[in-house]
């Protein structure tokens, strides 16, 4: 949906060891936006 509105992906969603899942995009004006959320860590 974001890409359909002109956003360009910088990084795909990824889950990190420190308990975050996030991704980056560039909006049509070139601003970099980061969306993320906390997730349960799996050991």
Short description:
By secondary structure, the chain is mainly β. It has strands at residues 8-15, 20-26, 32-38.
Structural description of this entry:
This protein has 43 residues and is mostly beta strands. The protein has one domain (3-38). Helix content is 0%, strand content 51%. A hairpin with a 5-residue loop joins strand 2 and strand 3 (32-38). The N and C termini lie far apart (33 Å).
SSE layout and pairing:
Blueprint: E1 8-15, E2 20-26, E3 32-38
Antiparallel strand pairs: 1-2, 2-3
Question: How many H/I helices?
Answer: 0
Helix content: under 10%
Order of helices and strands: EEE
Termini separation (Å)? 33 Å
Number of strands: 3
Major sheet attributes: 3 strands, antiparallel
**What spatial form do the alpha-carbon principal axes imply?**
elongated
Total of domains: 1
Could you tell me the radius of gyration in angstroms?
Answer: 12 Å
Strand order of the largest sheet: 1-2-3
Rounded mean pLDDT score: 91
Structural class: mainly beta
| Unreliable runs | none
Strand content bin: over 45%
């Amino acid at each position: 949906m974001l890409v359909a509105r002109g956003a360009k992906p910088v990084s795909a969603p990824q889950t990190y060891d420190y308990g975050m899942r996030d991704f980056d995009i560039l909006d049509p004006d070139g601003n970099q936006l980061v969306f993320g959320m906390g997730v349960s860590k799996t050991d």
